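Hi support team,

I'm opening this ticket because the web form for multi-chain structure prediction keeps timing out on my end. I have pasted the exact lines I submitted so you can reproduce it. The total is 396 residues across two entries, so I didn't expect it to be a heavy job. Is there a limit I'm missing, or should I split the entries? Thanks in advance, R.K.
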Amino acid sequence: MGALGQYIESAGVATTQISLIREHTEAISPPRALWVPFMLGRPFGVPNDAAFQERVLIAVLRLLEAPAGPVLVDYPEDAPESDDSVTGRVCPVSFRGSVDDDLGASLAREIEELMPWYDLARNRRGRTTVGLSGVTIEDAACALGSFLRQNTIAVFHGLSAGATLKLICEDIRAYYHEAAAARPGTPDAAGIQNWFWRQTTAGHAFLELHKACLESADESLRQLCATSLVPRTVLREMTKT
Amino acid sequence: MVRLADLPEWDRKGKLDKVKELGGFDQRPWAKPPPLGHCRIAIVTTAGLHRIGDRPFGQRATDYRIIPGDTPATELVMSHQSVNFDRTGFQEDHNVAFPIDRLNDLARQGMIGSVAAYHYSFMGATQIRDLETKACELAGLLKKDDVDAVLLTPV
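Hello R.K., no limit was hit. The queue was backed up. Here is the completed structure from your submission:
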């Protein structure tokens, strides 16, 4: 992010930016930056809190009034914690069956069971972020299950196997996340992540896919598992347990 | 939060190791914008956002996608290659990563001059120096849209 500030400002357009990792911003020293104490992925702190987001936005825009730079300022306000981070609630969805030998079949069943929660989330929000792959969630699950069984996939037009699976997995994960967040109370990102990776067939299928990709002769699949499939924190935790 | 002191040792070390790759930006560019109340502002994000029909970002992509200012939130999706950040916030409310509604609010209040017609998105999981060519190209486009200042937002 800081590099973009350097490049765009050098071309004559003023920039101001949010910094999520202060040490990285210090190293690049862009013209104006506001370091915020928020989790990665949430530069404006908290969803559905317009007043909080506006305070952060005003603070970062005010840096444009600085007489000289570089400027790196710390934002003083933490993001409010969700109710769930205190209570430890995760997700009210429990699944009927355990994971069977056919991950694809288990995944399809789980997706069907989550459908009411997903529909609720989509209707409440008026939007969904599922849809990158351009196929239905059922077809996405089918494609992943098929790859896990046969190690082949019908690639999307012009894309590698790794890129095709990335889009499919993004849709499946978004579907689960959106369904989980429909539960009562404020969604908690850590709780949803923990639920996805430890309690769902989808998380199990992603970990199996990760193993398969590690050993693949296809470079696009090795790239997929390097950074684009399972978070580093999850891989560390899973290898410990 | 991303205070390095709060992270596990392995994660802290990884982020500190990356600092070594970020040196060499020795210039101190400084463009003076007009007063905030007269500033036309665009958002440039590295969140890998785009409209649902646009090409998704690929591995190490250095190009950008255009997000017209009137793009409905229902059409915004994310194809960032990294999975090492939270997506649930964006799924809940796009403004937590791409604060277009908040920026429009400030324009209505008169705190900023106006909001640009076009905004732009990169995919941040790439070599930062590979972004220079497209960033310079983007600066030219921003000037044509009479943009005075850019709000840069990472994930």
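A quick check on our side: Chain B has one domain: 34-153. Let us know if the file doesn't open in your viewer.
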